[in-house]
Amino acid sequence: MSTYRQVLALPRVGRLLGSALLARLAGEMLSLALVLHVLAVSGSPALAGITMFAAYAPGVLLSPLAGAVLDRFGSVRAIAADQLASALLIGAIAVLATGPGDAVALVLLAALYSLTSPLSLAGIRTLMPRLVPDNALERANALDSGAYNLVEIAGPVLAGGLFALAGGQLTLVTIAVLYAGAWLLLITLPANAGRTAPAATDTGLVRSAAQGVRFVLGHPLLRALVLSYGLYQIAWGVLTVAVTTAAPDIAGLLWGLAGLGGMLGALLAGHHLRAGRERFAIVLGILISAVAAIPLIALGGTAGLVLGLMLLSFAAGPVNVGLLTLRQRRTDPAWLGRVLAVSISLNLVGHPIGSAIGGYLTAVSPMLAFTVAGIAAALGALLAWILVPRG
After folding, report:
1. Most Cβ neighbours (<10 Å): which of 148, 153, 239, 367?
2. pLDDT digits over 80-98, tens only?
3. What CATH number does the domain containing 269 carry?
4. Is 249 helix (H, G, I), strand (E, B) or coil?
């Protein structure tokens, strides 16, 4: 399998990626639209922060249980359940949370939305290696990562523009419709699509989830990826705050360029990366990210920010494609749902930690924040080189 067109022509892959694209676009739009909606109806930044926390944190905590559900009931059913629940709950927010007295309902609905989110986050990447041959896995993951970068560019622009033109309610209804469209496209797949591994065990869901956590932390490769990629995500978390603070007037444009760079890097990595080279791609990509902090500091101004972010995001392509592919190839298919759900959630923890650190460091000195981001990425590359097994 040598081309992206051939991968998309595989039975069921195009529909899976199309469904994922619609759902991710909805999720990316929601990140901005929900904050704008809460501010519009309540005027409270504190409530906006609480709502965003409710929309994401509970799902991270329940991700091991979501992984057990994926392995027991299959990815298609689990992803479809999340997409349908998301459509209904976001629609409910649009209808019910329309005034300053609806704070409790708003936070509760946002928390319910977050509970099923890990099913899609890990489920799509659990299903992918079961639908494509092994020699096409890099290109399939590159398409997956590239689509993610694409919605990072389009989501905030669409959400902000629609909110300005039509208001929060219509924007949220549009997001609910996108989730519904993703669900309708996904349910055209057979419920047992790609289900090559045993879907159920004699253990309960909670025990199965605990087994997934122990499996990830006890596996040398998976543990190494959690540690190295976690440091890499801390670097990105620091930069999220530092870059936006350094150039608030053009932050949207800068992060849009970053999304474009990430998409190009992912597609190039998918075309050239082969089995056995994943470790090298991860180490090199994270190391380039560390070096990219230098133009951010040394050049300064808009030129330094653009150059550094484009280099950072382009290098993220090989890192993400290599990480996904290596993790999928080295995991027993019977454990894939639990492994991806747990490891993805552990990796995601690094970003909010980095954002918290970045907020403090940026207040002291933006240059200090950029430097610390570079150091965190360099340590991540070093850990990947030392800890990720060769071969």
Report:
1. 239
2. 999 999 999 999 999 887 7
3. 1.20.1250.20
4. helix
